[in-house]
Each structure stands twice: as C-alpha cells, then as structure tokens.
Amino acid sequence: MIPRSFARHARLYGYSKTTSLLPYRNRLALPIPARSRVAIQTRHYAAKTEADVKIEDLQELYATAKDEFEIASEETEKKTVYAADDRAAAQEELAKLKTAFDDAVRDSSPDVSAEIKSRVGQRIRELDRAVEAMEQAALEE
After folding, report:
1. Which residue, among 38, 55, 67, has the nearest Cα to 127 in the 3D structure?
2. What is the pLDDT along the chain (141 residues), one digit of tens a residue?
3. What pTM value is reported for the model?
C-alpha cells in the first residue's frame, strides 16, 4: 500500500499510476517519472558487405604476418640461432597474405576489389618492403 503523501507527491510531479514499487523490505522506491521515460530504441547495424568480410580475413592474416615479422626482426637484430628460421616464417606468412590478397582482388567485382586495394593494399606493400629490408640487412651481416 502506498502512503497517501507519496501518492499525492506522485500525482503532483507526474509519476505514472502504472509504475509499481519495487518489493524491497523497509524501503520505498520512487517510481520513474512518466515524462522522463524514453522509448527503448534499438540500433540496427548495416550488414557486412562482401568487402568487409574479405578485409577482415586479410586483416587477420596481416596481423599474423606482422607478428612473425616483428619476431624475426628482433631475432635478426640479436643475431640469434633462430633468426634464419624466424625470417623464413615471416616470409611464409607474408606469402600467404599476398596470395589471399591477390585472390580477394581477383575474385571480386571491380568496386569491391578497389575497396580492398584501398583499405589493405598499402599496409601489405609496407610489410613486404620491411621484410625485404630485413632480409637485406641479414645478408649484409
């Protein structure tokens, strides 16, 4: 049962009659004012495009190739026993990435392939140049 003073307060300040009080012992919960209620809005996200799906796959391969490059670079700088194997692993992952990139560009429509090239192509070229520079540095030593 709602105390009379509370009911009067609720009417004066625009609380709705349909709001129920929460069943807490020895506590009186204030209902939400009717004028401050907001309809729950759901946000609809756009479906992923063909380009987005292919780019996500390429980004995963890029992350792996970059990790291998960083490991190989550290090992090459330290001149450890594992440096040659790590450089070979970096080359292998880069080759996988480049093959997947070429396949994605070739098997897509012109619009999708242009988007793939613009969003991923530059990073792949930079990684390729970095791996080549690392190989050159290893050969010079």
Report:
1. 67
2. 555 555 555 555 555 554 444 444 444 555 555 555 555 566 667 788 888 999 999 999 999 999 999 999 999 999 999 999 999 999 999 999 999 999 999 999 999 999 999 999 999 999 999 999 999 988 887
3. 0.67
